[in-house]
Design brief:
coiled coil; 9-stranded mixed beta sheet; (African queen) hypothetical protein
Length: 824
């Protein structure tokens, strides 16, 4: 077996490599071609590094360029190595010496500590030594008896306390208290009367602390699993956030807004397993956050605004697809407006936020998106009594599937109306607030609303009454009157369930009698349904009958809240009345008549004044108004009215009022003088039976301020009794297209319209106007908010049926022949 070769050292290996490198360069130098190539390569490398500003280090230069080592440099390196070895030896020697003296110092320090401890130690006698010394002397007998008595008492008390302990944890703590080194030293458990057992001592010895720690579960759930489940529950796909200010829960000092589950926990558990990992159903239920609750049918929102609801539904769909980062209209306003309560921002005239739009993320337009929307649609059903088909309009929430881009375009089409809606809400709230803050001794605010009808109830009911139609219903009209020094609540109750203008006035008449006699200005506040407070009959009642009820009144305003946002103090009055009546029934009473309802409220709610309204009074007022309002015409643009402002004009020769001029405004104005802000038009009444002005629709912003006289046009009695037009009334049918004329300031305007309703008795047509969309008079679109009643005299001609074209989501009507319209 050949001998093993001695392994080479590092220096030998390096030297061998250096020799090989020199031989390689020698071969290159001997070959002229390769030598020229090497030089050219080195020149290029040097030039490239020189351009970069980093010349090549010497290590990168070829060995032929580097200087050759000399014997002098070798000797210098040897001296350096020897000096380094010498320093290392000195350092090691000093380290050993430092360690030796450190140990010696520690030895003497401990020795000193023990000597000081032994010197200062006091000789403390043990319990056994103490008793032995006491027993040696007869004089200490009394002390021995006391010690023995103390031990017996303490033993008996501890035994009694131990028997009263109930839990294992308490017994463990007790055993730890009464055990220790002294007990173990003298072995007191061997005593006959001792309650301490050896088992107790052994258990206590194993405990290192007084209160033992609870054992932790080996299968403890990880924090990642807990966070994943909680995030799943809080996802908008699985739960929705409550919007109410009282929809919150607090536990252990943590306050959270409620979230309502969008599906059952069983279905959500299946969805979680499909998307994440598998856990037990019990663990999934246990990890549900306390603020994520199951929704209750009684806690759902039932009075939402349709505009806000549709905007929220679209935003939620875009948020679920991660196209938007928010899912509510409030967040939209905060993102696109400087101040969501500033009217300049909401009207999109603020220069800082006029160009702000929702920030959309990138999305895939090829994947369809679903969204829900509240819409009104016609539904036909068969009447079981008459066996005839009837068509009704109902609101339903439907699901649509579109491309994301189409949904974004539809959202942008709705934003203009939505911003205007928000501006109206803010303006009306601010105007009513300003009225309340600036009340004088001669001013009063009457805030009113109809409450939901109350049904009679008994504490015990038979089945036929409970499920039958035997319940009595009561109509509740609630009012809150604000004066400078007081706020009073009223509730008028009637068996008549109509909410017509005549019924409203009958409910208000007792309220007028309670007003102070010095009231000269009244501000009415209500919501704006056209069947109750905002219609031509109510305008006529205000102009002709208010001065009869409040003799000193000189001016008044009627302020309408924005559609869907009319909640206020009267709703609280109605809720209090009905809740009080239900409490009477719950405690064994009966609310079976109007009188019992009024008596129950008056006894328990002294702050609410109740009045009963006779059914005959409402019927008589209804008959009178029906005769007086035969020839009344609707105001063109009634749905846009948010304030009716009026000043009652009195005759200089008579004490009775002779006229009232009603100024229609698109928003409430708090100016004291007769201003032109938000003007829509003027109605002037000169007697109780006839309207002496044609309905006028004016735009105050485009009028010349120099010609700001009242745009009224008087109609004499002969004109009011003019017969029907020459066009045969029987030629019209619902759905026909007609050309209608309006005379404003001696200028005749022509509009295209479609007939919605025909009233042959009053000689009127209810029409919806069409708005022109081109310059030639061919293309029109329907303005759904522009509805009015016109007489047959105003119809110029019947138009041919147009062709219907659908562009995007809008419907356009195309007439083959130009329509000669002249719009304002």
């Amino acid at each position: 077996m050949p001998p093993k070769k001695k392994p080479k050292t590092k220096e030998e290996i390096k030297e061998q490599k250096r020799i090989a490198e020199r031989l390689r360069y020698q071969r290159l130098k001997n070959d002229p071609v390769k030598r020229e190539q090497l030089k050219e390569k080195e020149r290029r490398n040097y030039q490239r590094k020189k351009e970069k500003g980093s010349p090549s280090p010497q290590s990168s230069v070829s060995p032929s360029i580097l200087p050759m080592t000399t014997p002098r440099s070798n000797a210098s390196n040897a001296r350096k190595r020897n000096a380094r070895k010498k320093r290392d030896k000195i350092i090691k020697y000093k380290d050993k010496k430092i360690e030796y003296y450190r140990k010696k110092s520690e030895k003497y320090r401990k020795r000193l500590e023990r000597l000081e401890k032994a010197k200062t130690k006091e000789n403390v006698d043990t319990p056994n030594t103490k008793l032995t010394k006491m027993c040696d002397s007869p004089e200490t007998r009394r002390e021995v008896v006391k010690k023995a008595l103390f031990g017996e008492v303490l033993n008996a008390q501890l035994k009694e306390n131990y028997t009263n302990l109930k839990t294992c944890k308490e017994k463990q703590i007790f055993g730890k208290v009464v055990s220790g080194k002294l007990i173990h030293k003298y072995k007191l458990w061997r005593s006959k009367d001792s309650f301490i057992s050896y088992k107790t001592i052994q258990k206590s010895a194993r405990q290192s602390v007084l209160v033992p720690k609870l054992r932790t579960r080996k299968d403890k759930i990880s924090s990642d699993c807990i966070n994943t489940v909680r995030t799943f529950y809080e996802n908008d796909d699985n739960s929705r956030l409550g919007a109410g200010k009282r929809e919150c829960l607090t536990r252990k000092g943590v306050k959270k807004q409620k979230r309502y589950l969008s599906d059952s926990i069983a279905n959500l558990y299946k969805k979680f397993q499909a998307e994440h990992f598998k856990i037990s159903y019990t663990t999934f239920c246990r990890l549900r956050p306390f603020w994520v609750v199951t929704p209750n049918v009684n806690e759902r929102d039932t009075c939402l605004c349709i505009k806000h609801a549709n905007i929220d539904l679209k935003l939620s769909s875009l948020h679920r697809r991660r196209i938007l980062t928010y899912n509510s209209h409030t967040a939209l306003l905060e993102k696109t407006c400087c101040n969501r309560y500033d009217e300049l921002c909401l009207s999109r005239t603020c220069q800082r936020c006029i160009d702000k739009n929702p920030d959309y993320r990138e999305f895939d337009d090829s994947k369809p998106i679903e969204f829900k929307k509240w819409i009104s649609e016609k539904q036909t059903y068969n009447d079981p009594k008459t066996k005839n088909a009837r068509t009704v309009i109902k609101y339903v929430k439907k699901t649509f599937t579109v491309r994301p881009r189409q949904l974004i375009e539809e959202l942008h089409e709705d934003l203009e109306a939505y911003y205007q809606h928000e501006r109206n809400i803010t303006h009306q709230y601010n105007a009513i607030k300003k009225y309340k803050q600036n009340l004088t001794d001669e001013d009063a605010i009457i805030h009113m609303d109809f409450s939901e009808n109350y049904c009679s109830k008994y504490s015990q009911e038979i089945q036929a009454f409970h499920f039958g139609g035997s319940r009595l219903q009561l109509s509740l009209h609630t009012v809150v009157v604000y004066t400078k020094n007081s706020i009073k609540s009223y509730c008028t109750v009637s068996k008549n369930l109509t909410h017509s203008p005549a019924a409203i006035w009958a409910h208000l008449r007792p309220i007028f009698k309670t007003l102070p006699p010095n009231i000269k200005s009244i501000h009415f506040v209500s919501d704006g349904p056209v069947t109750q407070y905002r219609n031509k009959t109510m305008f006529y009642i205000l102009a002709s009958r208010l001065q009869q009820e409040v003799s000193n009144v000189k001016k008044f305003t009627w302020n309408y809240s924005e559609s869907g946002h009319g909640k206020g103090a009267p709703d609280g009055v109605g809720a209090t009345c009905k809740r009080t009546a239900d409490a009477v029934v719950a405690t064994g009473g009966d609310i079976d008549s109007l009188e019992s309802f009024v008596d129950a409220i008056q006894r328990r709610c002294s702050a609410i004044t109740l009045f009963t309204i006779d059914d005959k009074a409402i019927q008589e007022l209804t008959d009178d108004l029906q005769n007086e309002t035969v020839n009344l015409k609707s105001f063109n643009g009634t749905l846009k009215i948010h304030q009716v402002k009026a000043e009652i004009l009195r005759s200089p020769l008579e004490s009775a009022p002779c006229a009232a001029k009603l100024i229609m405004k698109s928003l409430s104005c708090t100016c004291e003088d007769d201003c032109q802000h938000f003007n829509l038009g003027v109605l002037e009444y000169k007697n109780k039976s006839k309207l002496n002005v044609d309905d006028i629709y004016t735009d105050s912003e485009s009028e010349n301020m120099d010609n700001s006289q009242d745009s009224t046009m008087e109609i004499d009695d002969d004109a009011a009794l003019a017969g029907p037009s020459s066009i045969n009334q029987q030629n019209y049918t619902i759905g026909d297209y007609v050309l209608v004329k309006f005379l404003v300031r001696k200028t005749e305007y022509c509009y295209a319209a479609v007939i919605n309703k025909i009233d042959t008795e009053e000689g009127e047509l209810t029409v919806t106007f069409l708005k022109i969309c081109d310059d030639k008079g061919h293309t029109f679109r329907v303005d759904e908010n522009d509805v009015s009643d016109v007489s047959f005299d105003q119809v110029l001609k019947k138009l041919p049926n147009p062709d219907i074209a659908l562009k995007g989501k809008r419907i356009f009507y195309y007439f083959n022949t130009p329509v000669p319209v002249f719009e304002k």
